[in-house]
């Protein structure tokens, strides 16, 4: 036998160790999918939002139309998925649903405006996009979320719990490469979402020295010698970085060049996209279902809430009764199937016993006929019955032809 060869898909798939670190298991994971009417923009927006949720999200998740929400929920526990982000499109507009798995709550936002990542990056003068910055989760910055109301606290906690927590005492500054900024406007009740890449540059250096420190090739065409290049201090776009309000003192050395411990460095942001303008419309108690805890447009009275609760309770009872009936029917079918199997087994046993008796009687008749015709006792194994079968000599007619007396 030859050695079985692995297929192409098996070779491409990387074997993941089942024993994952506790920090990775406890980190919030997410599914980002889209539903509703098809369109290129909603598909690209879904992919861009997955970039925000990196690295604890299913980046290459392939969804089909026949996949339901229950399909994703059923595998969420195995993959440690704690949140589900659903982009949907209707005739009215686009919506974003943020659900906490497995039992909710669910927040529904209406998307008023959005800009894809490709448009944001193409419009930027300077770009900073590479795969290294997506290997760590972003820093979350919330602004003006301290308003009154249960929906404000729930909304703020939902955005915070979608990303891993950061311990200020043990955090490594080299892992903070991105930030997600959420600003709430109390007048318009809208939320502006922005996604930035963070760059740290050293301060107190001239433009020429900064290029040398950052291992860049300087342009010496306008200089007579190195002294002219190092001593001149032209005005550049780095002057904005030298603003004292943007400077910080680094607690330890960073991996980027020139950023040493206890030295002043400037923080610079490069927008990555996408941009989203959201408005909270509804909060449901369960996952895409349940009691409506908050609604921006529709307001129910206490009588209407009680009526809705009664209807929901009635539907729940009907559903439980239907499940109970299905369970009883299934048990009855299994019981009938077992009885049929037992009855068939008993019938087959009785038939086998009768058949053995009949064959034994036939064997005895054949042996008696042999004695009468030949006048000798037959061999012991000539007409012996074994395991429900009798060793046949060929039947009486064939026996008569073979031992026919003259």
Can you give keywords for this protein?
alpha+beta, Rossmann fold, Ppan protein, two-stranded antiparallel sheet, 2 domains, 406 residues, PPAN-like, elongated
Description of the structure:
The structure is a single chain. This protein has helices at residues 8-12, 22-26, 40-52, 69-76, 117-123, 150-161, 207-213, 226-231, 302-374, 395-402; strands at 29-36, 81-89, 94-100, 106-115, 139-143, 178-185, 190-202, 247-249, 264-271, 275-284, 292-295, 385-386, 389-390. The chain folds into two domains: 16-203 and 265-299, Brix domain (Rossmann fold), CATH 3.40.50.10480; 301-372. 35% of the residues lie in helices and 22% in strands. With 406 residues, the protein is an alpha+beta fold. The strands form two sheets. Strands 1, 2, 3, 4, 5, 6, 7, 8, 9, 10 and 11 form an eleven-stranded mixed beta sheet that branches. The protein has a two-stranded antiparallel ribbon with strand order 12-13. The chain contains ten helices and 13 strands. Mean pLDDT is 82; it is low at 235-240.
Which structural category fits the helices and strands?
A: alpha+beta
CATH architecture label name of the largest domain: 3-Layer(aba) Sandwich
Beta strand %: 15-25%
Question: How many domains in all?
Answer: 2
Tell me the Rg in angstroms: 39 Å
Give the terminus-to-terminus CA distance. Answer: 62 Å
Mind telling me the CATH superfamily name of the largest domain?
A: Brix domain
Mean pLDDT: 82
Uncertain residue segments: 235-240
